[in-house]
Design goal:
The structure holds two protein chains of two kinds. Chain A is mainly alpha-helical. Chain A is 74% helix and 0% strand. Chain B contains 14 helices and no strands. Chain B starts with a helix and ends with a helix.
């Protein structure tokens, strides 16, 4: 008995460093578990019930198994909105990433002067309140007095119907404008954290521009790069603020703006089928889950 | 002589001109929509699209900063503008402190520990926030009501922090992983214990990473909208993002229901100042990497 206690004591003493180190991660895990995983599990549970937002079914709901999921995959609207979402997310990902990287380059590595002013200007879209984004962009896209059509008129070009005909293009334009700052902030720091000495050493060995990028820059920024791609995709598939602004409380007749997340919102909060909305939410989470694992595997981080 | 100079220029093209063209294009994309915001905040006669102001006034800014009641369709709303600014600062400051402390602890630990299933744990942390927020509204509200976090600014900060924490742990772990291990081991040899090695050697060298985490967590608290919308009921506890929506916009998200464009835009302009100031401050203080420091000692 005593020997056992002694054994445990020695083990603790020998591994004290490791034990303290592993305890440091606990507070973060507790917070994440309580406020992310518990509500998520709750949502998954809701997706297996016929709970409604209001009315009788809001209180007296019952377990229905996978009915919501079966209803979903047989709903033509679900597949239409899946199609919309894939196109939107793909284009948006490329643009948000490219603009963000370019902005980060201008803020850090480029030889252009006035970096602080450049940084301040590039930060503006994320510094103004998100609630103002729709109004700012309505001033741009408004068909009669909007800034874009005024510019087109000035150059003698025909005005466009940004909010109707080119609505997906407008959506992507707004989302890129509002969302490139994440990539910019993260990549600016990643560029800054590459020690200059590495490039000096590379130059001594006579490395070319491309070799310097391939052998010094890329390995050091690969991790944040992949993280950007993962998180941009997650945000795009999750967020329907701008799609909602062109749509409202019920789907548009042409269905062009019905992203999966908006489809879930309409089901949960317009048709009050909360359980069904939660099921769509879980499907979105699974899509992100699979794509994230795929990206991590491909990038080997 | 001059000719060969020009030939040389053509031979190895300088990227500067191209850079300026790209930069100006990007700036126009970023700034053109914002012209309306700036113009409306000083226009005596605000309209929802870009126009040449008939007169310029700072009245809207004064109205915002003196809590003057709004004379519009929904005049019944009390205005606690200065209080809202304080609330927002409390929420974003608390979020920032929680996230920095917890993310530094967790990511340092995850970067240095070696155990089976570490990659699995990291993946789980990253994936923990992947349920769409919209689907979590009801459970989150019920959970916070049970824990007494409704109508509680610190409660909002905790929930916001839990949402951004996974991302920040991942970002910071990347920066920690990048540091050569010898750096820390050298510090131990020089007589530093683990804690002082972290403060004197490790943290100064992940400055850019700390800057990202500090700025992003501040921004997630400052810009938080959905979570305060769920958790805060009393109007004097609103953060500024929610305050703008409640006073000026009858139904947030629906277009065309703004009551008063002038003060709204003035408030939006004021709202942008703290984030930009913080970023510039962090940039000055944290973005310079100091890898040479140990070699000097």
């Amino acid at each position: 008995m005593n020997l056992k206690v002694l054994k445990i004591k020695t083990w603790i003493r020998d591994n004290l460093d490791q034990i303290v180190l592993s305890l440091l991660v606990v507070p973060a895990l507790v917070l994440i578990f309580t406020f992310q995983l518990i509500p998520s599990a709750w949502t998954i549970w809701f997706s297996l019930t016929d709970i409604a937002l209001v009315g009788k079914k809001a209180l007296n709901w019952s377990f229905v198994g996978l009915k919501n999921y079966l209803d979903m995959i047989t709903d033509i609207d679900f597949w239409r909105s899946m199609n919309v979402t894939i196109q939107y997310c793909a284009v948006s990902l490329v643009l948000r990433f490219t603009v963000g990287i370019l902005a980060a380059l201008f803020m850090t590595l480029s030889k252009v002067k006035g970096k602080i002013l450049i940084a301040a200007i590039f930060l503006l879209p994320s510094a103004i309140p998100g609630i103002m984004h729709p109004y700012v962009w309505i001033s741009m896209l408004e068909p009669k007095y909007g800034t874009l059509n005024t510019i087109l008129k000035f150059f003698g070009l025909p005005p466009q119907s940004w909010t109707y005909g080119a609505v997906v293009e407008s959506l992507i334009m707004i989302n890129t404008w509002a969302g490139y700052t994440f990539t910019m902030i993260l990549m600016a720091s990643a560029f800054k954290s590459i020690p200059r000495e590495y490039y000096e050493v590379a130059e001594i060995y006579g490395a070319s521009r491309w070799q310097k990028f391939r052998k010094v820059t890329l390995p050091l920024i690969k991790f944040p790069l992949i993280l950007c791609l993962i998180l941009i995709f997650k945000e795009d598939i999750d967020d329907f603020t701008y799609a909602y602004m062109f749509t409202g409380e019920s789907p548009r007749p042409d269905f062009k703006t019905e992203l999966l997340s908006l489809y879930a919102y309409h089901k949960a909060f317009h048709y009050y089928e909360l359980g069904f909305g939660c099921a769509v939410g879980f499907v979105i989470a699974i899509i992100v889950f699979v794509l994230t694992l795929l990206q991590l595997r491909v990038a080997r981080v | 002589m001059a000719m060969s100079g020009i030939l040389k220029k053509i031979g190895e093209p300088s990227y500067t001109l191209l850079e300026y063209v790209v930069l100006i294009t990007l700036m126009m994309y970023v700034l053109t929509p914002l012209l309306w915001l700036l113009e409306t905040s000083v226009n005596t006669d605000p309209v929802p699209y870009l126009s040449i102001p008939k007169g310029i006034t700072i009245d809207h800014f004064i109205a915002v900063l003196t809590n003057r009641p709004i004379t519009g369709g929904y005049a019944a709303h009390p205005v606690y503008m200065t209080r809202w600014i304080v609330n927002s600062l409390i929420i974003s400051g608390t979020t920032m402190i929680i996230v920095i402390i917890l993310a530094v602890l967790a990511s340092y630990s995850l970067s240095r520990l070696r155990f089976r299933g570490k990659n699995l744990l990291m993946t789980l942390i990253l994936l923990s926030g992947f349920m769409p927020r919209m689907a979590m509204i009801l459970p989150l509200f019920q959970l916070c009501r049970t824990l007494g976090l409704v109508d509680n600014l610190i409660g909002v900060a905790i929930v916001v922090a839990s949402g951004t924490l996974p991302t920040q742990i991942w970002i910071l772990k990347g920066f920690f992983d990048q540091l050569p291990r010898d750096l820390e081991e050298q510090a131990w040899i020089c007589g530093c214990d683990r804690v002082s090695a972290v403060f004197r050697i490790i943290l100064p060298n992940v400055g850019p990473g700390l800057a990202v985490v500090a700025f992003m967590s501040f921004l997630s608290g400052w810009g938080a909208f959905t979570i305060p919308l769920i958790l805060i009921r009393r109007e004097y506890l609103f953060p500024i993002s929610l305050g703008i929506a409640s006073v000026f916009i009858h139904n947030p998200g629906e277009i065309g229901l703004v009551v008063d464009y002038g003060p709204t835009c003035a408030l939006a302009v004021l709202y942008a100042i703290p984030s930009i100031a913080l970023y510039i401050l962090l940039r000055e203080r944290l973005m310079e990497i100091r890898l040479a420091r140990l070699e000097v000692r």
